[in-house]
Amino acid sequence: MLIDVGVNLTSGQFDKDRQDVINRAFQQRVSAMIITATDIEECENALAMAQQMPDYLACTAGVHPHYAKDVDADYLAKLKQYLTQPNVVAVGECGLDFNRDFSPRPQQEQVFIEQIILAGEQCMPLFMHERDAHQRFLALYREHAVANQQGVVHCFTGTVDEARNYLDMGLYLGITGWLCDERRGQDLREALKYIPLERLLLETDAPYLLPRDLTPKPKSRRNEPAYLMHVARAVASLKNIALEEVLQYAWQNNIKLFNLTNTALAEVQSEPTTFTQNFTEIINSEHSSTS
Question: What does DSSP assign to residue 205?
Fold first, then answer.
């Protein structure tokens, strides 16, 4: 069985068929998902969803570098409250993005530092984003992470040297369908040779990063957690090992990193539960109660 450790399940692209997406994933051996949250509002939505299906869904809580410019003065207090919930398993998505620079770099860095420190204080792993900011990311993480801090570089697409740098810091690397792109994925394919199975996680980043070599492709071109097995097969093929070995290590790594041992996500479910009400209604009721 598989756990998709990075899926944007709150995306509006899933509004019309979210339950069907979950069911299709389960049919393809995806027995749990961790929903990525990227700002405070999305933390609320992701947690509401995870609480509806606690045996199948968990989530992160954090602020993506794109939204660092938008944080309120009390955002860390809000994040700390989310982290007390059993459905929340990591701080993030946080990090640095010097490619698009949607937030000024000093603000990105400050918000990243604050979340590194928060994760250390709360003994939580980090779910991290880095794009075109490798050296600065390394410097900030080394300076502010506590000893034995755990974390994953989500959607890793980098070079052999970048992979080695992250591995040397004890981090896990999240592998997506980027691996299946013959145009852009060559660095990742080479780096994969040096990534030990003990430090590898699997994710789709759905609805983004549909594997380019997937056939037949969905008409919508939308990625789904059901395609996670396609990524696992690509890893097994490129490493020239059995698929079941990849699945076994990925499962064990998920349980260890996200401390899932005593949660329902660590158990193989006979079938996923269903939402007890429409997700839009859930979110509307949440907002009404807090307004």
Answer: -
pLDDT at 262 over 70: no
**Is 149 in contact with 120 (CB distance < 8 Å)?**
yes
What are the φ and ψ backbone dihedral angles of 140, each rounded to 5 degrees? -70, -40
Q: pTM value?
A: 0.93
User: CA distances (Å), 282 to each of 22, 38, 45, 135, 206, in order?
Assistant: 17, 19, 9, 41, 22
**CA pair distance 167, 199, nearest whole angstrom:** 8
Identify the CA nearest to 109 among candidates 79, 138, 149, 89. Answer: 138
**Residues 6+ positions from 250 with CB-CB distance below 8 Å:** 2, 3, 197, 200, 201, 202, 232
Strands 2-7 and 172-175: unpaired
Please give the Cα distance from 4 to 152 (Å, whole number).
13
What is the C-alpha separation between 42 and 241, in angstroms, rounded?
38
- Residue 261 pLDDT > 90, yes or no? no
Q: How far is CA 3 from CA 29, 31, 167, 244, 265, in A?
A: 9, 6, 21, 14, 9
Average pLDDT over residues 250-276: 80
**DSSP-based three-state secondary structure for 35:** strand
Element (H, E) at 30: strand 30-35
Among the listed residues 155, 251, 171, the one whose alpha carbon sits nearest the alpha carbon of residue 203: 155
Cross-sheet strand order for the sheet of 88-97 = 2-7, 30-35, 57-61, 88-97, 126-131, 151-153, 172-175, 200-202
Q: Are 74 and 130 within 8 A, CB to CB?
A: no
